[in-house]
Design a protein that fits this description.
Blueprint (H helix, E strand, L loop, with lengths): L1 E2 L11 H27 L2 E2 L11 H6 L8 E2 L7 E2 L6 H6 L3 E5 L1 H4 L7 H9 L3 E5 L5 H5 L4 H9 L3 E4 L11 E3 L5 E4 L2 E4 H12 L4 H25 L4 E7 L14 H5 L9 H8 L5 E6 L6 E3 L13 E3 L5 H26 L1
Parallel strand pairs: 1-12, 2-14, 5-6, 5-7, 7-11, 11-12
Antiparallel strand pairs: 3-4, 8-9, 9-10, 13-14
Helix pairs in contact: 5-12, 9-11
C-alpha cells in the first residue's frame, strides 16, 4: 500500500590502551567539531553534529529549547528513550507499537513528533527507538537485539527510511551502524568522510565517487532486507523528507550535499527505495513536506514566543512537518491496530 502526501597507531598498543586512546581521540574530535560548527554556523543549526555513544545526547544539546522527557526502558541495559514513557504493564502485554529510525523519528525540536501524535490518535502507546545518525545496520547490531525483541512483542513497527551516508563501502566502514565511520584508519563522522572523498577525487575521479555511493547504497539495502527478516509483526516503511525521493546527483557542484540530495535521507533515491521494497514490507507510506521549515527556536522559558528566536533549525523536520507525517500515518496505523487486535481475540 502506498500513500503519497584523529589518528592512532593501533599495532603496538595493548588492548586496554587502544580502547582508552580511541575514546580520548573521539572525545577530542567531538569537541573540535562542536567548536568548528559553532563558529561556522552562527545562529543556524547544522546536521554535522556528533552523536557519540550517549543515547540522550540531544537533550544535552537542546536543553535551552525543549525537554524530551527521557525515561529508562525497564529490563534493558540502561536504554534511554524519548518520552512519553510506556507502562511496564503495557510492555508486558505487548500493548504498544514501535518506531525505528533516526533523528526524524526521535523528533528533534518537536514537542510532539509523529510517533507521539500517532500514539495519541490511535490510543496505543509507542516505544520510540529514534536514534540520531542511525542507519538500518544500527538496528541489526547484536548489541541492539533487545530492540528487535521488543518490536516483535508489540503490535506493529514503523520503520523510517534512514540515511545511507553511513553505510559501509570500499573506503570506510560504519561503526556499529551509526553516524561514526572508520575512514582509512581514522574515526570520523560520515559527513566528514564523504567530504574527504569528494575533496580527494573530484578533479579526475568523479566516477570513483559514484561507485562508492552505489556501494553504500548496496550495503544499505542489504541491511534493510536483513532488518525486515528479523521483524515478525507488520512493518510500515515510512519515507519522511523535505524532498521527493527521485533526485538526481548534481555533478556540477563540488559539495557533498549535491551528491546526497541536499536533505534527509542522504544518498537515498527512488531506485534505492524500490530495492528496499523488494523485501515486501506490509505497508509503505510517504510524507514530503516543508511546512513550518526552517523552524525558529525559542527558549523554553519563552512559552508565548514574545522574544525573537535565538536560533533556527534548518535540518530536522519542523513540528508542522511531524503533524503532516502523522496525518498520513493515522489511518494506516489504525487499520493495522484493528487487524492485529482482531487476530489476537
Amino acid at each position: 500500500m502506498i500513500f503519497e502526501t584523529e589518528y592512532v597507531d593501533h599495532a603496538f598498543m595493548p588492548h586496554a590502551l587502544r580502547c582508552f586512546a580511541t575514546i580520548v581521540a573521539y572525545f577530542m574530535l567531538t569537541v573540535a567539531m562542536c567548536v568548528h560548527m559553532a563558529k561556522a554556523n552562527g545562529n543556524s543549526l547544522d546536521v554535522k553534529i556528533p552523536h557519540g555513544t550517549n543515547q540522550f545526547y540531544y537533550q544535552q544539546r537542546d536543553e535551552k529549547f525543549i525537554t524530551y522527557d527521557a525515561w529508562e526502558l525497564p529490563g534493558t541495559r540502561h536504554r534511554i528513550l524519548r518520552g512519553p514513557s510506556v507502562s511496564p504493564t503495557d510492555i508486558e502485554k505487548g500493548h504498544y507499537f514501535t518506531t525505528i529510525g533516526a533523528a526524524e523519528t526521535f523528533g528533534c525540536f518537536a514537542q510532539k513528533p509523529y510517533p507521539t501524535l500517532v500514539s495519541a490518535h490511535i490510543g496505543l502507546p509507542c516505544l520510540n527507538f529514534g536514534r540520531g545518525g542511525a542507519g538500518p545496520a544500527y538496528f541489526n547490531n547484536p548489541d541492539n537485539d533487545d530492540i528487535i525483541e521488543l518490536a516483535n512483542h508489540g503490535l506493529f513497527v514503523v520503520i523510517s527510511v534512514m540515511s545511507s551516508r553511513q553505510a559501509s563501502n570500499t573506503l570506510f566502514s560504519s561503526k556499529q551502524g551509526g553516524y561514526t565511520v572508520d575512514y582509512k584508519g581514522l574515526i570520523m563522522t560520515a559527513d566528514a568522510a564523504w567530504k574527504s572523498i569528494v575533496d580527494e577525487n573530484w578533479g579526475s575521479n568523479k566516477q570513483d565517487i559514484g561507485k562508492l555511493i552505489e556501494e553504500s547504497r548496496d550495503s544499505y539495502v542489504r541491511e534493510y532486507h536483513a532488518l525486515f527478516r528479523k521483524i515478525k509483526v507488520p512493518i510500515l516503511l515510512f519515507y519522511f523528507s523535505r524532498r521527493q525521493p527521485d533526485y538526481t546527483i548534481n555533478w556540477a557542484t563540488n559539495h557533498v550535499s549535491s551528491l546526497s540530495g541536499d536533505a534527509f535521507p542522504q544518498f537515498v533515491d527512488q531506485s534505492t527505495i524500490n530495492r528496499i521494497l523488494e523485501a515486501k514490507p506490509t505497508h509503505y507510506a510517504t510524507c514530503v513536506s516543508k511546512r513550518g521549515w526552517p523552524q525558529p527556536l525559542y527558549l523554553k522559558s519563552d512559552t508565548l514566543h514574545k522574544k525573537l528566536p535565538i536560533r533556527t533549525n534548518r535540518y530536522y523536520p519542523s513540528p508542522e512537518m511531524h503533524e503532516d507525517a502523522a496525518g498520513i500515518l493515522y489511518p494506516i496505523c489504525q487499520s493495522i491496530t484493528n487487524q492485529m487486535r482482531s487476530s489476537l481475540k
